[in-house]
Amino acid sequence: MPSPDWHAPAVHERIEALVTLPGSKSLTNRFLVLAALANGTSRLRRPLRSRDTLLMAEALRSLGAGIDDGTTDSAGADWIVTPASLRGGGTVDCGLAGTVMRFLPPVAALCDGPVVFDGDEQARVRPMGPVLDALRILGATIDDGGRGTLPFTVHGAGSVPGGEVAIDASASSQFVSALLLAGPRYEQGVTVRHVGPPVPSEPHIEMTVETLRDAGAIVDDGEPDTWRVEPSEINALDVQVEPDLSNAAPFLAAALVTGGQVTVPGWPQHTTQAGDAIRDILDAMGADVSLTREGLTVTGTGDVSGVDVDLHDASELTPVVAAIAALADSPTVIRGVAHIRGHETDRLAALSRELGALGSDVHETDDGLHIRPRPLTGGTFHTYSDHRMVMAAAVLGLRVPGVVVENVGTVAKTLPTFVELWDGMLGGSGHPARTADAASA
Ligand SMILES: O=C(O)C1=C[C@@H](OP(=O)(O)O)[C@@H](O)[C@H](O)C1
Ligand SMILES: C=C(OP(=O)(O)O)C(=O)O
Question: For the structural domain made of 6-22+242-437, what CATH number should be given?
């Protein structure tokens, strides 16, 4: 059911704001999976509550895990996850979440009966085949009608032999992460070898390896494109979720394109989040960027430069980077992101169409976009059920009056409070630093 349109606010003055963001989708969903497979009760502090993570929690509940809201602090309640023996018989709604549709089939294979997977219509074209084929080789039974996409049924048999498997993960790093996360619970563990063009979004695999190791699993990633997880228990977790750095990108971009200043508190000094790359990208596009104990501060200098950037490792950032590029003083080349045609929508086609409709000169290549800035005019920006298209439109709207964002509610996939946070950030422009807080939004 589409949500209303949103008139993206334009601003004439420099933005000055402190924007506190909710937790990372990628970390929250990894922690939920590991906690459901662990040997005791886990606590997740400051988890993200968004469509993707609520779907993950609901799916794990249907497989038997207990997930309760615990004590409340200013950022909301913790999640308390109590594992139980994994049961079949249920249905998992994946929505449009890559993490749910890829990370849970390897868990469902451990259940004591069949688990049906389905999702949004758009989810039925997202690539899944390599995970399903790998699971079959590792000993699971799956019925997907030969399609290699949703919907499908995983016939859990209570255990999975595991072993070694070769897959082509060039369409998504999530194929590798999925097999590794459940790997410790397979009888022989799991060894995944990637064979094919380079795997995208490698930091997300590093995130998987780090979260597994932090939970006591033994992971060998010493050989390129090969990951080995030994069979072992997964220890219960007590973790605090970092802010989502990819969701921070549009807010930081707002500082650059308005010549203002935005600080995101709690930016980690060390992280495996791919979104951390936004620091270097904004720097290359003309911002002053400084990371201190207080957080990440981005200050616009008045210049917005085009860049030649390979986003293979941080492809989630493409829509926001493309929006900045359309407002820049010089052309931009975005490379290395052919696989984002299989994200929430074909992002290269969607960006090319929507930026073009506002007046930008955009050329779609096999693996990216060439963007030559032109004067832009307002109009409807279609979002294709893609949260990051909403974020891109909001950035454009700052400098282009009359941008109307269609189906703004789709941003709830990873940031349900986006509009409140955006309004909070803008509310005080021209005044002493404004505060937009995830907890109060
Ligand atoms: O593992 C994860 O949490 C993710 C991996 C990446 O997927 P791809 O490798 O398909 O790009 C990323 O784009 C996605 O938003 C989240
Ligand atoms: C690609 C994304 O999501 P997903 O986890 O559904 O793949 C994204 O959030 O940009």
Answer: 3.65.10.10
Q: Is 102 in the pocket of ligand 2 (CB under 6 A)?
A: no
Regarding an ipTM greater than 0.90, the answer is yes
Tell me if domain 6-22+242-437 and domain 25-229 are identical in fold: yes
pLDDT digits (tens, 9 = 90+) for 185-214: 999 999 999 999 999 999 999 999 999 999
Helices (H), 360-435: 387-399, 418-427
Indicate the DSSP class of residue 389. H
Count CB atoms within 10 A of the CB of residue 330: 14
User: Residue ranges per domain, the chain?
Assistant: 6-22+242-437, 25-229
Pocket test for ligand 2, best of 316, 317, 348 (most atoms within 8 A of CB): 316
Q: Please state which CATH class domain 25-229 belongs to.
A: alpha beta
* Angle value at C-alpha 381, between 376 and 387, nearest 5 degrees: 125
Tell me if 242 CB under 6 Å of ligand 2.
no
SS3 state at 309: strand
Q: Residue 194 corresponds to which amino acid? A: H
Say how many Å lie between the first and final Cα of the chain, rounded: 23
Question: Relative to the CA of 414, which ligand 2 atom is closest?
Answer: 9
Question: What ligand is nearest to the CA atom of residue 27?
Answer: 1
Please state the pTM of the whole predicted model.
0.96
Q: Name which of 65, 154, 144 is nearest 113 in CA terms.
A: 154
Chain segment 370-401, per-residue pLDDT in tens: 999 999 999 999 999 999 999 999 999 999 99
